[in-house]
Amino acid sequence: MKKCPFCKEGFLEKKTIKETYTYKGHTIEVDQPGEFCNSCEEGILNAADMKATEKQIRDFQSQIDGLLTSSEIQKIRRKLKLTQKQAAELVGGNTNIFSRYERGEATPMRPISHLLRLLNNHPEQLQELTKS
Ligand SMILES: [Zn+2]
Q1: What pTM value is reported for the model?
Q2: How far is the CA of 4 from the centre of ligand 1 (A)?
Q3: Cα 15-18-53 angle, rounded to 5 deg
Q4: Average pLDDT over the chain, rounded to whole?
């Protein structure tokens, strides 16, 4: 077992803990995998450990900020019958931006979130934006 680099007494154990995450006064509990010390409870997270909670935390922040969450974005895009590529063309982003939004790897800027929300309520307006 690896010795803890923080307290130098305990040992690091690979496990998943309940971690409380706070954003703008709101809290959420996430299942955070990582290597945690059995003595001082400090932890080391690698890229995969951080990825495990990224979507959940990002969606939580979006809800508090009044932005669309990853699943809402996917739902609206499908309702509008747009591919991820077509949706990206509509908002002028990188071609892979919707796959990143929908996987919870990126948060849309507020105007993009607003546009999608409007199109969700008025899907017939889409043709006005896509006619050339
Ligand atoms: Zn320790």
Answers
A1: 0.85
A2: 5
A3: 80
A4: 95
Q: For residue 17, how far is its CA from the centre of ligand 1 (angstroms)?
A: 15
Query: What fold, for 70-129?
Result: 434 Repressor (Amino-terminal Domain) (1.10.260)
Task: Identify the bridge partners of residue 43 per DSSP, sorted by sequence position.
Answer: 36
Ligand 1 centroid–CA 103 distance in Å is 34
Cα 36 to middle of ligand 1, angstroms: 8
For the chain, domain boundaries? 2-53, 70-129
CATH fold label, 2-53: Ubiquitin-like (UB roll) (3.10.20)
Ligand 1 centroid to 29 CA: how many Å?
22
Question: Token pair for residue 119?
Answer: 């199109």
- Stated as kind and residue range, the H or E segment containing 35 is strand 26-37
2-53 and 70-129: same fold? Answer: no
Does residue 132 have a pLDDT over 70? no
Q: Residue 18 C-alpha to ligand 1 middle, in angstroms?
A: 18
